Amino acid sequence: MFRRLHDNAATVTITIDGVTTKAAVGESVAAALLASGDPRCRQTPVSGAPRAPYCLMGVCFDCLMEIDGEASRQACMVTVREGMAVKRSPRPAPMTP
Amino acid sequence: MTETVDLAVIGAGPAGMAAATLAAEHGLDVVVYDDNAEPGGQIYRAVETVARDRAKDFAFLGESYRAGAELTRAFRASRARYEPGTTVWLVQKDRTIGISRDGKARMVAAKRILIATGALERPVPIPGWTLPGVMSVGAAQSVLKSAALAPKQPVVLAGKGPLLFLVAAQYVAAGVKIAAILETGARKWDALPHLWQAWSKTNYIGKGLELIRAIERAGVTVVRNAVSDLKAIGRERVEAVTFSADGSPGRIETALLLLHEGVISNVQLTMAIPVKHAWNATQRCWQPVLDARGNTDVDGIAVAGDSGGIAGAEAAAHMGRIAALDALRAFGRIDGPTFAAMIVVEEVAQKRLLAARPFLDALYPPPDTAAAIADDTIVCRCEEVTAGDIRKAVDLGCTGPNQTKSFTRAGMGPCQGRMCGLTVAEIIAAKLNRPMEEIGYYRIRPPIKPLTVGELAALE
After folding, report:
1. Rounded to whole angstroms, how far apart are CA atoms B98 and B116?
2. pTM for this model (two decimals)
3. Which CATH number does the domain housing residue A21 bear?
4. Chain A interface mutation, best of B36, B50, B101, B142, highest count of A Cβ atoms under 10 Å
């Protein structure tokens, strides 16, 4: 969906769902996700529909992902770090009484 | 012991930076909390990084953006303490602030608070706007500035407003392919009576025409004839956008649709305190009620920049300095004559810039289309509540957004109503044929940003 205008930026290595990806130093996890070719970040709890980042400024909360083991982080507000493990959030299992 | 500070500024966009720089220069102990990693806000996002690492990108990002580098440099050189990556999740009327940084929450007692949390894009609820591949224009610009990311395939921009044309012009200058610009709305003639005032006092009109000329020179298709009925089509991600232009149907294949219908004041924090707000019928959003120097009805809490009313980045910096001067006088850091001499400079500049607002507000009127949102269109993205669900709740007797929230869960998700609040209220207002003032808004409650229970429990 997005491409990098420069290919000479300094990079760090992160994983998205276990897949190794290069990210530019200083960019957000959401930006790295958009550049990765698959912008999906989660499935909604209500219908399980796929979502991708929408506003990229911390407002819409659509880019919630698991980052280094912490669930529901706003991927657009977190800067990538070397070795960071990012996971797409699956649809939570429905609660049963 | 609780940390104390003279002036706490919330947000490091043009208003926050200008205010903090001036206040610190005159000896106030100033701290700036910013949830971003570097100063600039949305308008000057990543301007330091661009200036340092990829200055050639200014060629397509433009001179207005580059101007932010100077404001940022002055802010960095000042004695104001900058706390990046810091969220403010609570502001109380007694000026206690709850912040969170690096997974640790703490409380700060401020003698004065300046809220400069800027603007956000007006939500554009159209069918399919939750599909991957549909984003806001501002979002696309954010990664163009911060990460030099641009659409891979030809992109469609739909909506209206200065930002839409700015981003389109930036794409053209960066060599990015635009499939089409679909301009919604049509009532342009309303703007004419305000043209002279805007033209004679500011350079906004000239700048805008330059952008539009650059877009046209590049051969971009601009559909100007009152585009409506926008739909994002696709199953797992957007594949096409359909619309009608002057009643004729249109369809464009695209993997990326960018939406924009102007910006609204970000009032999440001021609503949570709460300070007094009023409905701005022209800009169609809620705004805090402020005096000429940005003071709210709560003692010691002021607002500057777009979070107090949409006026743009340049005006925001002046408003920030006006609020800072008011704070300096309150602390006795400047005498009466100095205050008077300094504030008049800012007020004159501010007034000149505001002269363009009536023209821009009339040229790009916010959509008044809540009644036309189809029943099956999602309005609350978090809880996937549709316009029809809201209307059904109104039929059951709901008269405001806090009631429809209980009935439908709209506004109860993680965004805390930021993305649906206006739409839900406007749907209710349209259905009941009542003014927005009567319909009201969600009761916003802290914490207004996510906070772990662990952080809360560890608070002293």
Report:
1. 16
2. 0.97
3. 3.10.20.740
4. B142
